[in-house]
Amino acid sequence: MTTYAFLLDLGRCIGCQACVAACKTGNELPPGVQYIHISEQTRGVFPALQSSIKNHRCYHCADAACVAVCPTGALYKEDGLTRLDASQCSGCAYCVDACPFNVPQLVNGRSNKCDGCAEVVKAGGQPWCVKTCPSNALMYGERETIIAEAHRRAEALRVRYPNVQVYGETQLGGLGVVMVLPDQPEQLDLPANPQIPAVLNTWQNVVQPASVGLLGFSLAFTGLAAIIARRNHKQEVAHLHVQNSAEETAAVQPDHANET
Amino acid sequence: MARTKLQISRRNFLKSSLLSAAALSISSCSAQPLATVLNQNGLRLPWFRTGEIKTTYNYCDMCPWRCGIVVKSVDGQIYKVDGNPADPKSRGMLCARGQAGPSFVYDPDRLRAPMIRTGARGEGKFKEVTWAEALDYTAEKLKITGQAFGPEAVAVFGHTSGDFWFTDYFAQAWGTPNAAKPSSSLCTSPREEAAKLTYGLPIGGHEPVDWDAINCIVLIGSHIGEDARNTVMQDFANAWARGAKVIVVDPRFSNVAAKADYWLPIKPGTDTALLLAWLNVLINEERYDKAYVADWTTGLEALAAHVAPFTPEWAAEITDLPAESIRATARLMADNLPQAAIIPGRHVTWYGNDTQRMRAIYMINALLGAYGREGGIYFSKSPYIEAYPHPPFAVTGSSGGCSAEPGQESAELPLGPTGKARADGARTNFLRGATAMQELIPPMISDEPYPIKALIVYGVNLLNSIPNPQRTIEALKKLDFVLAVDVLPQEHVAWADVVFPEATALERYDELWVVAHKTPYIAMREPAIEPLYDTKPAWWMVRELGLRLGMEPYFRWETAEEYLDARLLSIGSSLDKMRQTDGVIVQQGKPYFEDFAGESPFPTASGKIELYSDELASAGFEPMPTYEPVAEPPAGYFRLLYGRHPVHTFAKTQNTPLLNELYPENELWLNEDEAGRQGITNGQYVWLENQDGARSGPIKVKATQRIRSDAVYMVHGFGQNAPELSRANGQGASDTKLQTTYALDPISGGAGMRVNFVRIVKEV
Hints:
The structure holds 2 protein chains of 2 kinds. Chain A is an alpha+beta fold. Helices cover about 35% and strands about 20% of the residues of chain A. Chain A has 9 helices and 10 strands. Chain A has helices at about 20-25, 65-70, 95-100, 120, 130, 145-155, 200-205, 215-250, 255, and strands at about 5-10, 35-45, 50-55, 75-80, 80-85, 105, 110, 140, 165, 175-180. A 4-stranded mixed beta sheet of chain A has the order 8-1-10-9. In chain A, α7 (about 200-205) packs across α8. Chain A is globular, with a radius of gyration of 19 Å. The termini of chain A are far apart. Among the domains of chain B are: about 1-45; about 210-380, 3-Layer(aba) Sandwich (Dimethylsulfoxide Reductase, domain 2), CATH 3.40.228; about 640-760, Barwin-like endoglucanases, CATH 2.40.40. In chain B, the strands form 7 sheets. Chain B has a 7-stranded mixed beta sheet, with helices on one face. By secondary structure, chain B is an alpha/beta fold. Classes of the chains: A alpha+beta, B alpha/beta. Chains A and B meet through α1, β2, β3, α6 and α9 of A and α1, β3, α2, α7 and α20 of B.
């Protein structure tokens, strides 16, 4: 089966945020919601400085913790990417908690994250961020091709960046965003060896296949929920707050104008 | 008009599901089933599946670079703007600001109807009127001013991509030489005047750097990536990835400095000393392109003698840079010549000695043999097309944008119908003929050399772009009549007598965008939707005014389409034909020496690049650049530096919802160690007070290692005091309001703005 992936070349990325804006407009993301976050990573002391851009987004893990933990199937893998059918989302926020990269957010009570521009790509287009990127730091294509391109670019950069490396080829079963990193991942605020919480591995490998048995399902679900719920409580309060403010800003929007 | 967004609440979801089910059950008999906007799961379909997509061609108005774009709308609503793949600037890609074009259109704070002032000037009280009333009133005021003081008493300031109609067409037809654009004296005039003095050629709006083959890129203050000109970001990234060497000279560790092979954190104000030392190394070590210099330059001997004392050791003392770095970077350029160049840059009005600094840059590029060579600086060429046929203008003179053509400038300034030349002091207070917008403010106050009594402001954020805004307010109080033409209720709009609300670029036809380039080209603009509210395009406004002012012969065309088709016919084209070639016409350029068949491409007196300038010498200026120290910050003060953020343009986009969301307020870059010494923490809000007691703020401190300790930096365009701008009002600090003084460049008339100092005030 052909799988697809993004290339994210942090050597080339210059932090212009064109991808952020293209994503927001193309996907009609409401105020306060971004699928891509740009920030700077600066190291050293004046004038011996190094800096690179952090381009934080869903990395579309092959072993996706969010998919493993999603009780409704709203999150699922397709073509190597992690899709989201928001209509199936119950708003439990387990994905929010399980993601090793802190990516999914709850928006109006539903999970929300990059789905690789599924609709656009299926219509033959390029994801919005890729299409607009002025520095050609982004590409989208068959994962094999993307990995080859990532290695080609990394080798070309080695003169400048001795620590240059390709990230995402193997992590978490292989990420759907293969990155060219100019430095060690830790220097760029990325875990060298990201891990899914052990409890989720159990959930995915043992319980989920066996979950045809209602008892097994409910027992496992209860156990998982208990573990996560304690950590979730604080975040849910925060999410509620975000939701409320999002609803306020939505007051002028047709969907909501009809509600009252 | 609100945009429909993907907003799903639980309640909404349930309701949508029910509606969707209902829609499916009745879809066989309903002409407009809800299924067109909702999918089978009750979620709203993505915009591009809600109906037929209408595609229109345009050039972007979100910054002055003006990339070609394709605009996608469905059922009269604009959803998406993409780069036009056929356009030589955008090549299918687009920056964040361009992506926010629809957000600019749907900004609910837009001006919606023509207005006439009812309160005191500056109070911002207006009544909405009809267009006929607003136009009649304005025409009457202009007529009275013209009759009493001559047409020269009307000044026209314009910026953004519709400024042609007011600043060029209307001003010349009406008869005022006092038309100005900030892109000249507040931005590029030293760059252009220095280029004309040295090469006989302007640099032009699209800097002619031959990025495809350049091997050594030198940036002085240019912060590519933060300054997000789309094409330049593309070209830089490709050259960098190809392995081109990069030298960045900047007191701040910019994003592009982080990609450089050499970052030279120069002491602000000392750039010319560095440039002189580079010249010294290139000449002393005989590391210049000897054949090129012999063939195409004059004055090398004089230059060699002139720069002999300016060793790297001499410059090291002044610039706070190691002599070895200065020498190494000069050699790196030489190693790569002629595929090496200092990029001319854009905003270069820094210290008042800017034309001489730019001359030094061009001399280095000449020694590197870069101009006219592959991988250096190419000769840009304007596309061929005729102007719309009209009677001779009442006054013919460039309004001084950044793309003036060579040969347009004569020794004599053009005179208005009553015999008056431009009132900005060109040829008297400064040498050259470029328009100095800021120098047109004093005549509004003093009536010297003659009165300016009326002002038309098109798209210029008057109080957040011209230094010494306190003086501009004094002028606004004294003027007899002020017309503001704008999309948004900017700060100065409160000072207008009449307000014309303009349709945005995505809602109008406009003048063709005719671009001098490696491949000369022409781009078109057509509306994607009808103008929102009661807004109108500038071409319509000037025509309606012209018809009321007895200027009918200039306005024989009735529609923009008619005007545009007449122009396009001169090259055998039309709007329809342009649409068939994706809205762009590309012509053949002449980028290199080989394209000139042995003729000199340099229209200077000598036909060569003039390292030594007779024109400057005979006018009493240094014929070759010297280093002139600039004033140092007083104790306790920092030099105020400013620049760009990639999601904002000047003082135009701070209120645009999408861009405001991405960067709502500017930050004060302050050296981290210096912050510690002052007891200031990262994220703390402070106020700034300049050397004259002007204050702005509060602004959030970004305590960082990425800047020298003798300067602070902020993104330009924030700190606007415009209550009608619901998002931008009062956000961050204004660099302009802290620029109570500026240094006039005695050659170009540019306003050097980096001569202001600020101290940090922790509480007010």
